[in-house]
Amino acid sequence: MQEITGRTRIFAILADPIHHVTTPQLMNQVFSSRGVDGVMVPFHVFPRHFKQMIRALRDLQNLDGFIVTVPHKTIMPALCDEVTPGAEQIGAVNAVRRTPEGRLLGGMLDGVGFIIALHREGIQIRGRSAYVMGAGGAGSAVAFALAEAGVARLTIANRTSEKANELVDRIASRFPKLALAIGTRDPSGQDIVVNATSLGLYAADPLPLDVERLEPAQIVVEAIVQPAETPLLAAAKIRGCRVQYGLAMLVCQIELMADFMGAVDSRSATESRNG
Ligand SMILES: NC(=O)c1ccc[n+]([C@@H]2O[C@H](COP(=O)([O-])OP(=O)(O)OC[C@H]3O[C@@H](n4cnc5c(N)ncnc54)[C@H](OP(=O)(O)O)[C@@H]3O)[C@@H](O)[C@H]2O)c1
């Protein structure tokens, strides 16, 4: 990492819990490789303090942006001055740009990262069936992204059923022709199975879905980054499923996050890599 001075621009990630985050490591690598005089630091913020923290961050003059993750993404849109159309549709924000005047612009990049990660692995999405366990910020983003990418059938399951119902209704109004269903803990009969809950962050967590019902032909995708091998992925491997780790989804959006916060221009990075 470069030396931190009085000129260094600050970026943060806000979460509860915070121990699992790997965004600072990846983001600081991006800053270092791109010569950005910036640093990303982890902020552990409880939900009851979140609003006052956001108010305070507006006035932090050397803060240019921050990442928002579990469990704050769905409250963040209401705390922004402006959100992108995509984030508004999804109902969650994971990247925030702070202007010099202290205005906050929110965006949502989880879905893009998720889709790029599957494409990079050569996993076909169009025409297939997908099951998403989780209807929080990541679950909503992933579900909208799968619909956008052309799945033939999309099933949403969630502990709090009202949130699954509400997400299905929002997707249905945007994609009226898509076959949508509310699921249970049973993922059988689906091509792509996604865990977008926070179950698996702690060793004592129960499994997010019924792993006995996994089938060898399925692709099981994890959103959790740390631990890399969650009990769900371990069980899926035993059953012969192809698995995708949560890190891929994060890696595929890290430059987009840096770009959204105004730290780098990812288009020029792509151009310079390609040219
Ligand atoms: N790889 C990546 O790039 C990436 C990106 C974003 C997020 N993530 C990971 O995805 C996970 C979810 O993040 P998020 O931002 O969507 O969080 P969130 O908005 O707080 O949503 C949490 C989800 O987990 C469910 N959940 C929590 N505790 C549960 C329990 N005890 N039993 C059953 N379900 C439970 C919630 O269900 P209820 O609605 O019933 O509460 C909700 O669906 C986190 O682990 C996060 O680290 C990874």
Rg from Cα: 19 Å
What compounds sit in this structure? NADP nicotinamide-adenine-dinucleotide phosphate
Helix share bin: 25-40%
Please write the string of helix (H) and strand (E) elements: EHEHEHEHEEHEHEHEEEHEHH
Question: Strand tally, please?
Answer: 12
The end-to-end span amounts to: 27 Å
What is the number of helical segments per DSSP (H or I, 4+ residues)? 10
Indicate the mean pLDDT: 95
What would you say this structure looks like, in words?
- This protein has helices spanning 23-34, 50-58, 76-79, 85-90, 110-120, 137-148, 161-174, 231-238, 246-260, 266-274; strands spanning 9-15, 38-44, 63-68, 82-83, 95-98, 104-107, 129-133, 153-157, 179-182, 192-195, 219-222, 242-244.
- The chain is α/β, with parallel strands linked by helices.
- A 6-stranded mixed sheet has the order 2-1-3-5-6-4. Strands 9-8-7-10-11-12 form a 6-stranded parallel sheet, with helices on both faces.
- Helix 1 (23-34) crosses helix 9, helix 5 crosses helix 6 (137-148) and helix 5 crosses helix 9 (246-260).
- Bound molecules: NADP nicotinamide-adenine-dinucleotide phosphate.
- Residues 69-71, 73-74, 110, 113, 134-139, 158-160, 163, 196-199, 201, 223-225, 246, 249-250 line the site of NADP nicotinamide-adenine-dinucleotide phosphate (NAP).
